[in-house]
Design goal:
Glutaredoxin, four-stranded mixed beta sheet, binds S-Hydroxy-Glutathione
Length: about 220
């Protein structure tokens, strides 16, 4: 069977979300680099794969998927018997809780943390000055989301329960970069969030993918 093809870049947050999942599942895949800086993602051949011209894209035979969380869900379901069970496929209630916390990451966590990472790490690379007002407003929002995480993680080891799942995995890319920012204390000052982050970021799949997450070192 031809290996899956993941189009993306090792330093891209959304690509790494898919990469960590592929490593957790122990699935063979090929990473096909996309020259974002040269605009390859806006060329017709790439837009045919993702009409938004963004990475990552997964190809599995004649199936083409975009949206990193849809990619992880597909991989976790297709290979449910292999590697880490990321979706609790044998327990309807646990599987439903995984979906709840997947939504929380996507709807609450990511909208707060991504502008901070963007302003601090990406803007300077593009010759722009980070907008402190944007950072400040989103630090406040992120603090409120992390208060919810702190409360949840004081009663269970991971977000959806006492098991690691996609709900935890999806937080990896932005938290990884955020922890290299001056505001890592937002995580470190919340003991349960800190312990959870130390736990999930020490998983072999995370450590392997983190080796390629170098763009914050260019600062
Ligand atoms: C977002 C993809 C995205 O923003 C997902 O897959 O989760 N909701 C989508 N991709 C960025 C790189 S993120 O590291 C991208 O491709 N940017 C280039 C562009 O928008 O032109």
């Amino acid at each position: 069977m031809a290996p899956l093809k993941l189009h993306g870049l090792p330093m891209s947050t959304c690509t790494t979300r898919a990469l960590v999942c592929l490593h957790e599942k122990g699935v063979d895949f090929e990473l096909v680099p996309v020259d974002l800086f040269g605009g390859e993602n806006k060329q017709p051949s790439f837009v045919a794969k993702n009409p938004f011209g963004q990475i990552p894209v997964l190809e599995d035979g004649d199936l083409t998927l975009f949206e990193s969380r849809a990619i992880t869900s597909y991989v976790a379901e297709k290979f449910k018997e292999k590697g880490t069970d990321l979706i609790r496929h044998q327990n309807l209630k646990e599987a439903a809780l995984v979906k709840v916390w997947i939504e929380v990451e996507s709807q609450n966590f990511q909208p707060a943390i991504s502008p901070i990472v963007y302003e601090f790490f990406v803007s300077p690379l593009m010759g722009k000055t980070p907008e402190q007002a944007v950072v400040d407003a989103n630090l406040e929002k992120l603090g409120k989301v992390l208060d919810v995480y702190e409360s949840k993680l004081s009663s269970s080891k991971y977000l959806a329960g006492d098991f690691f799942s996609l709900a935890d995995l999806h937080n990896f890319p932005y938290t990884y970069y955020f922890m290299k920012s001056p505001w890592a204390s937002l995580v470190n000052d919340r003991p349960h969030v800190k312990a959870w982050w130390e736990d999930i970021s020490s998983r072999p799949a995370f450590k392997k993918v983190a080796e390629g997450m170098t763009f914050c070192e260019k600062k």
